[in-house]
Amino acid sequence: MFTLISATPSPYARKVRIALAEKHIPFTLQTEVPWDGTTKTPRYNPLEKLPVLILDDGKSAVYESSYILEWLEAKYPETPLLPGIDQVDARLFAKRIEVVVDGVCDALVLAFFEKMREPEKRSQPWIDRQMRKVEGGLKALGEWADQKQGDYLVGDKLGLADIAVGSLCGYLDCRWPSHTWADTYPALKKHWQMLEELPSFQDTRPSPQTMKDKVV
Ligand SMILES: N[C@@H](CCC(=O)N[C@@H](CS(=O)(=O)O)C(=O)NCC(=O)O)C(=O)O
């Protein structure tokens, strides 16, 4: 059986957890804090990041959330999370949405750690730059949510784009509760609320983690 190295607040890991659940692929969840010295992540990922999907042999591993999802889609095409190969533009649009989601998450993580530095070492221009990326990405996602034709962002069933967007919104709700995205983008908030009702979302709700070791 696969093992997924995850972290309780991780939006990247939540994408994979939801995809595994939607594809009915059983796995063991191994929850870690990747910044703590106890993490096993570096054994499997030279980039020392989770999520990491450890395969049945307990040694081979797939890492980088967007690649793990591509790997799962290729290896387990039943219950597809992307439109059919004959719908190239729709597939590419779903991946474009994931690119924006991951980029917003990356910027949030960078801003989070910059704010963790002692005040005299903190760079406000750097934080401002990251938050500009967050706002720009959320604006794009908000527009796509507004333009949604049916219940889902791409196609007529739950897919990669919804899983990515839902994971980001859940991360903001968990780690950035004072952010005003839900008021600014009501269609995005409504879509997220619908997604959170799904069992695979209910079973993967994020929660904060405590870091024991100094990170920055
Ligand atoms: N691009 C990566 C980003 C993953 C990532 O940043 N993971 C964090 C944990 S979390 O932010 O998702 O909770 C991590 O392992 N960070 C450890 C490190 O950067 O050394 C992906 O999509 O998998």
TrEMBL record:
Transmembrane segments: none annotated. Gene3D superfamilies: 1.20.1050.10, Glutaredoxin. GO terms for cellular component: cytoplasm. Residues 1-80 form the GST N-terminal domain. Residues 86-216 form the GST C-terminal domain. SUPFAM superfamilies: GST C-terminal domain-like, Thioredoxin-like. Pfam families: GST_C, GST_N_2. PROSITE patterns: GST_CTER, GST_NTER. This is Glutathione S-transferase domain-containing protein.
